[in-house]
Design a protein that fits this description.
single chain; alpha+beta; Jelly Rolls; 2 domains; eleven-stranded antiparallel beta sheet; seven-stranded mixed beta sheet; 4 helices; about 10% helix
């Protein structure tokens, strides 16, 4: 299953952000967890000797001077970035980035005193992620305490020729990119690269043990073994598996209905909705979304037409209240509310993981939904 999001530029030279479906193409060596899982197995008692990681020069680090805003810091320049820089491309509704955040946060804490500067480059996927108020709130709620450069016009994204969330770029004391990591996983290799660059930069007294992370909530690693549902947009431009009878009516209101059954990874609407390019918008209360999925976790990126309001919702799994399978954004009876634009965790089911029928009903109009993700 994919461990990252991908973006690409279209012919008009605007950045067109796309999430595609990739398979993992590598399995790490014995004793190391599979790409995308947590690296708690990497944590070792005592100190380890930093292995020499082949770090070639990939180019000079581009300027961050075209950032549209800085959070947690004044604008950083080459003179005050520090000896070693870790650039982390992210967007706050991305589940793949959320699951990598505990490691980036831990590295920032551990190595700050040895000369590492972590800089998050927030390049938005959805329009609401360009709003500095929303990003500032996400920074606070997700405990992103290192400097963040907002990249609303994608200038930094383009300068790095980046295509992924998350994407890490490791920069040495001379401002050269020496390593990169696209997507979740490979946490041990990433930390060893940080250690090697710090040693090269003359850092002394380096603790060469590896960080131990116990991620919880939305930051917990995916259950890759059971993950059989891929991320899916619900806007008409890139959605897959839409099964409401009669199909989608782009950019216009329509009364949709659920089919009698949904196959695995199919989804459908019921009620008065407008399907737009990037999102679906509910026009009348009691609209529903149904999805047949196979995963431990189900998330839905949602927002509000009127950001001053809220929309109550109720979730059913296989036709009943979720109980112990409820996500962190609702209670065991399936009740929750959309109060801000972000990713909502709606399902975290216990073992055994099997095919499930998910349904969410919105008790008020005015909700927007953007994409489903799984874990």
């Amino acid at each position: 299953m994919p461990s990252f999001h991908v973006g690409e530029e279209d012919m008009s030279d605007r950045v067109h952000i796309d999430r595609r479906h990739f398979l993992h193409t590598a399995v790490l060596t014995a004793g190391v967890t599979r790409l995308g899982r947590a690296a708690s197995a990497y944590a070792q008692a005592g100190k380890t000797k930093a292995a020499a990681v082949p770090l070639s020069v990939e180019g000079q680090m581009p300027s961050l001077g075209r950032a549209t805003e800085w959070l947690n810091s004044k604008p950083l320049t080459p003179a005050d970035r520090g000896k070693v820089v870790l650039i982390d491309f992210w967007t706050y509704s991305c589940i793949n980035w959320r699951r990598s955040l505990p490691y980036v946060r831990a590295w920032a804490d551990k190595y700050e005193g040895q000369g590492l500067v972590v800089i998050g480059v927030h390049t938005p996927e959805f329009g609401f992620e360009k709003n500095v108020v929303n990003v500032r709130q996400a920074v606070r709620e997700m405990a992103v305490h290192y400097p963040v450069a907002m990249d609303n016009n994608y200038a930094i994204w383009r300068a790095f020729k980046n295509q992924y969330w998350p994407a890490l770029y490791f920069v040495d004391g001379q401002g050269r990119i020496r390593h990169h990591q696209f997507g979740e996983g490979e946490y041990e290799q990433s930390e060893l690269a940080i250690q090697q660059l710090l040693v090269e930069a003359g850092a002394g007294g380096l603790n060469q043990g590896l960080v131990s992370v116990d991620a919880v909530g939305a930051e917990a690693p995916a259950d890759w073994k059971e993950l059989k549902s891929s991320e899916n947009y619900v806007g008409y431009e890139r959605t897959q598996g839409f099964a409401s009878p009669g199909g989608a009516l782009p950019d216009d209101r329509r009364a949709y209905a659920l089919p009698q059954t949904l196959k695995l990874n199919q989804w459908a609407l019921a009620g008065d909705w407008t399907m737009e390019k990037q999102a679906i918008v509910l026009n009348k209360k009691n609209g529903r979304i149904a999805y047949r999925f196979h995963a431990r976790d189900l998330h839905l990126v949602m927002g509000l037409v009127d950001p001053r309001g809220s929309v109550q919702f109720r979730v059913l799994i296989d036709g009943i209240a979720p109980g112990a399978a409820h996500g962190i954004d609702l209670n065991d009876q399936g009740n929750g509310s959309v109060t801000e634009p972000r990713m909502y965790q709606l399902v975290r089911q216990p073992q055994p993981i099997v095919d499930r029928s998910f349904e969410i009903e919105f008790l008020d109009s005015g909700v927007e939904a953007f994409s489903f993700t799984f874990g």
